[in-house]
């Protein structure tokens, strides 16, 4: 008996499942269209497909919520083509491109950041975990200032573009805070217009003269303050009037001194005459008193007196006594008058000296006051000239800007009230489409896996069936 002949003790067992192991494959091959296959797959795995579809829609909504977190503020700048030169005509002209580059320039962006505040626009955040790890590992890191970091972030969030088929430049900026976004865009446009005026108009000369005017105003105020303090400290409020009053007083005092001296000389001469008269009357008065008292003995012969005896020789004795008394009284009066005149002369002389000193002091103060007044007058005159020139330059710059300026703000940035992301309905539409596609794909994949659990021997046919499935069209 050969080995190929069946043995008697073996039984033949029929296995129908082995014969029908390619039934699923045959079903796929004999299908009239791919739509029937997709429908069978969806009917068999409908729960999984529905789960995939719902998860896809939820993922789209979540993605919209994650991406749609910033507000966009925008401003529009109008380019007046009628005021440009022929070389600047057109939407793609050198002028327009230059303005877009100027809006994106570092100077303009940094000026806007400075106006808003870099710490307010982009607050300094603590070091991240990666930076802390590098610090822990002693790895050298390049420290960046908050101003530079704010500039880089603002430059990335800023977008400047020319609107298609228009003469408008749109400046947009995205930020998490809508108010800061609008403030930054407005500050950027103002900074840009200031730089534009400095480059294309005569605003620089007007600003220079305005600065000179401010400096001269401070100079005039300083000179006026110095002059006022000097006049207050020295009481030189009106030097000409004060000088006139002092000269008048000096003249009056000089007249008074001359009058007093004249009267003093007169009184002194009167006193001398009275003294001589008293000297002549004194012996006769003594003899007259002795004649009036006869009980007393006659006095001894007197020494001859050195005066003219014939002056009062024939007068009665009592008359001589009365004349002596009156002369003595007149003598005393003249003495007091002379003393008063001498005191008045001394006072007037001292006052005249004080007036002379005041005149000398006033003369020196007058020189310094005139110098300060000349400084103030020169500063005021220079201020008047510079102010006039600055006004002319400012008017010329305004007229030039009004006539030649090609850039104007058409629309300032306002505070946005909604985020700048796409509409949620767009996310839902795309998410629904992709979710449905994914759900059908998952169902078909599971159907294929179920059909090809036992791989076919004909590999080429299996590959073609797979390609036909992914094409979604019948061959």
UniProtKB/TrEMBL annotation:
Superkingdom in the source lineage: Bacteria
Location of the region described as Disordered in the Swiss-Prot/TrEMBL record: 283-303
PANTHER family per UniProt: CAPSULAR EXOPOLYSACCHARIDE FAMILY, TYROSINE-PROTEIN KINASE
Ranges that cross the membrane: 45-67, 424-446
Keywords: Coiled coil, Membrane, Transmembrane, Transmembrane helix
Chain segments annotated as coiled-coil in the UniProt record: 355-389
Name of the protein described by the UniProt record: Polysaccharide chain length determinant N-terminal domain-containing protein
InterPro entries noted in UniProt: Bact_polysacc_biosynth/exp
């Amino acid at each position: 008996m050969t080995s190929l002949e069946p043995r008697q003790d073996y039984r033949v067992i029929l296995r129908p499942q082995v014969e029908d192991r390619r039934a699923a494959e045959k079903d796929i091959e004999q299908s009239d269209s791919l739509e029937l296959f997709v429908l069978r797959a969806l009917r068999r795995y409908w729960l999984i497909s529905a789960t995939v579809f719902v998860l896809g829609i939820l993922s789209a909504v979540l993605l919209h919520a994650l991406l749609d977190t910033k507000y966009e503020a925008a401003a529009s700048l109008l380019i007046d083509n009628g005021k440009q030169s022929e070389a600047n005509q057109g939407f793609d002209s050198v002028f327009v491109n230059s303005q877009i580059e100027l809006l994106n320039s570092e100077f303009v962006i940094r000026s806007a950041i400075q106006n808003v505040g870099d710490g307010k626009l982009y607050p300094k955040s603590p070091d991240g975990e990666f930076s802390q790890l590098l610090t822990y590992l002693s790895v050298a890191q390049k420290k960046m200032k908050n101003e530079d970091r704010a500039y880089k972030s603002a430059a990335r969030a800023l977008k400047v573009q020319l609107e298609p088929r228009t003469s408008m430049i749109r400046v947009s900026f995205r930020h998490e805070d809508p108010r800061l976004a609008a403030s930054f865009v407005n500050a950027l446009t103002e900074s840009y217009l200031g730089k534009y005026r400095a480059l294309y108009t005569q605003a620089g000369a007007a600003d220079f003269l305005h600065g000179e005017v401010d400096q001269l105003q401070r100079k005039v105020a300083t000179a006026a303050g110095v002059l006022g303090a000097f006049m207050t400290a020295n009481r030189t409020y009106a030097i000409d009037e004060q000088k006139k009053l002092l000269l008048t007083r000096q003249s009056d005092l000089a007249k008074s001194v001359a009058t007093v001296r004249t009267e003093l000389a007169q009184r002194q001469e009167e006193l001398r005459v009275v003294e001589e008269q008293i000297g002549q009357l004194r012996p006769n008065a003594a003899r007259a008193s002795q004649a009036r008292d006869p009980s007393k003995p006659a006095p001894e012969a007197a020494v001859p007196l050195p005066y003219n005896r014939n002056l009062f020789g024939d007068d009665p004795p009592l008359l001589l006594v009365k004349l002596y008394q009156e002369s003595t009284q007149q003598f005393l009066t003249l003495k007091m008058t002379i003393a008063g005149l001498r005191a008045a002369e001394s006072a007037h002389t001292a006052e005249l000296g004080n007036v002379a000193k005041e005149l000398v002091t006033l003369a020196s103060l007058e020189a310094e006051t005139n110098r300060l007044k000349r400084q103030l007058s020169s500063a005021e005159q220079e201020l008047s000239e510079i102010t006039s020139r600055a006004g002319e330059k400012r008017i010329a710059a305004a007229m030039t800007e009004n006539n030649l300026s090609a850039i104007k703000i058409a629309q300032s940035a306002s505070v946005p009230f909604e985020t700048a992301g796409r509409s949620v309905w767009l996310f839902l539409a795309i998410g629904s489409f992709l979710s449905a596609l994914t759900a059908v794909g998952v169902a078909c994949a599971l159907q294929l896996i179920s059909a090809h659990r036992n791989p076919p021997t004909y590999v080429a046919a299996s590959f073609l069936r797979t390609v036909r499935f992914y094409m979604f069209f019948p061959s």
